[in-house]
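The instructor's notes for this session suggest beginning with a concrete chain rather than abstract definitions. Hand out the sequence below and ask the class to guess, before any prediction is shown, which regions might be ordered.
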Amino acid sequence: MEFSGREFWGLIHGMGAGAVFLLAFAGGLAGLWSLKPELVTEAGLAERIRRLKIGTWIMAAAAWVTVFTGTWIVYPWYRDPAPDSPKSLLLANPNTANWHEFAMEWKEHIAWLAPLLATAVAFAVTYYGKDLIKHQGVRRALMVFFTLAIVFAGVAGLFGALITKVEPVR
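After discussion, reveal the predicted structure:
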């Protein structure tokens, strides 16, 4: 099996960085969820916080890689002004114009919220460190931000996959 350069970058963008983002989210959310005083010993807290810091920063980095590769590598191929570009083909057909006018416009903006939120969570985990266990309200807020990051990334990924199904980048 061979990939073209565009297929390779599409794979890196969606399946590579996107998969790392998803895995880091699962681990990070589980780590935040279980960070309760009654569940963790002092020794366990130090180990858990170390893993949580690493995981949240990996998630943030994966989110940034996904958005950067999508915005500056894959997206320009989609927006190419040529009449046979995916954008042009979608807009030329009244049955598919909404895929660009709604889905792509939403996708290109909502995707940027995921790395911003993931970075905020990683920063807060690093800032609070072991003291995060004392601030259960902050922990719950971080779980909300973490979940919003994955929801926004999921919306962007879903729209991207559906748009690519309708009119792939060639």
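Then share the key points. The chain has six helices and no strands. The chain has a mean pLDDT of 89.
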